[in-house]
Amino acid sequence: MLSRSPAESRIFRLAVAALTAATAGALAATLAALAGRPAPVLTDAVRHLVTVGFLTAVVVAMAFRLLVVLEGRPLAWPRLRALAFWALLGGVLLRTAEVLVAWGLPGLAPWVPLSGLLVWAALACVAANLVAAVAPPRR
After folding, report:
1. Other Cβ atoms within 10 Å of 73 Cβ, number
2. Which end of the chain is more exposed for a tag (fewer CB within 10 A), N or C?
3. In this predicted model, what pLDDT tens digit does every residue of 74-115 receive, in sequence order?
4. Confidence (pLDDT) at 1
5. If we measure between CA atoms, which residue out of 16, 24, 58 comes closest to residue 43?
6. Domains in the chain: how many in total?
7. 29 falls within a domain
């Protein structure tokens, strides 16, 4: 039970993919700025790929991992790891979709704000397991 779950591995892979995309986006934004054509929407997407896609994903995956190790017992709701992954994936994709909105797909614009709710849902999955882990055991 102390080994990493497939859901945690997926969350870590999401973090790596987001950081890779952020690196490519930062390079593209830098080249655009050097060419005299700054791309503020792209730099905004890069910021969200780093903060939400990478940092938040690592925090979520490590929280699930550390709860099991530090408490020495299984998660109260282990399936919430998978829900957290899908919520984070949706949040990252929708948040970075603002680039597509700026580049000619305005139909995506109403969906971008949903990204925040999805990320909060992922954090709520961690919080639920955290509360259960620190709560006194039932007798």
Report:
1. 12
2. C
3. 999 999 999 999 999 999 999 999 999 999 999 999 999 999
4. 44
5. 24
6. 1
7. yes
User: Does residue 71 form part of some domain?
Assistant: yes
**Per the structure block, which two tokens stand in for 115?**
């990204």
Q: Is residue 55 part of a domain?
A: yes
Residue 77 lies in a domain: yes
Rounded Cα distance between 79 and 52, Å, is: 21
| 1-41 confidence digits (pLDDT tens) | 455 788 889 999 999 999 999 999 999 999 999 999 999 99
Residues 6 or more apart whose Cβ sits within 8 Å of residue 82: 7, 10
| Domain interval for residue 37 | 6-134
pLDDT-derived band at 120, boundaries 50, 70, 90: very high
Q: Are 126 and 64 in contact (CB under 8 A)?
A: yes
